[in-house]
Design a protein that fits this description.
This protein is mostly helical and 102 residues long. The protein has a single domain (2-100), classed as UDP-galactose 4-epimerase, domain 1 (Alpha-Beta Complex), CATH 3.90.25. 46% of the residues lie in helices and 4% in strands. The protein contains four helices and two strands; from the N terminus they run βαβααα. The protein has helices at 8-21, 38-49, 73-79, 87-100, and strands at 2-3, 36-37. A two-stranded antiparallel ribbon has the order 1-2. The longest helix has 14 residues, at 8-21. The two termini are 30 Å apart. The mean pLDDT is 93.
Length: 102
């Protein structure tokens, strides 16, 4: 499975820009547009936490798709949307927040 993981600050920035620039109704996809496998995400989380995950592999769930990601072309062109936080940087920020708030 591949998914498009986006750091929350990048999504919030996109929403704020859309609210400021849009007049009327419009639809924008916000995301990273760089899908990674769920296994890669787990490996990155393991590295960031310094722990090994306990994984249980299950068959695909009904209705699940193999690969999803956001086409941000319209948001880039009309809003100047530009997600800037890499998956590694976002995970590092998340782990720091998690440790501080646990």
């Amino acid at each position: 499975m591949m998914r498009d993981f986006t750091y929350i600050d990048d999504i919030i920035n996109g929403v704020v820009v859309a609210m400021r620039k849009c007049a009327g109704f419009n639809i924008y996809n916000l995301g990273e547009s760089r899908p990674i496998t769920v296994n890669d995400l787990i490996a990155k989380i393991e590295k960031a936490l310094g722990k090994t995950a306990i994984k249980e592999y299950l068959p695909p769930q009904p209705g699940d798709v193999e690969r999803t990601y956001a086409d941000v072309t319209k948001a880039v062109n009309e809003l100047g949307y530009n997600p800037a936080t890499t998956i590694q940087a976002g995970l590092a920020k998340f782990v720091a927040w998690l440790r501080q708030n646990s």
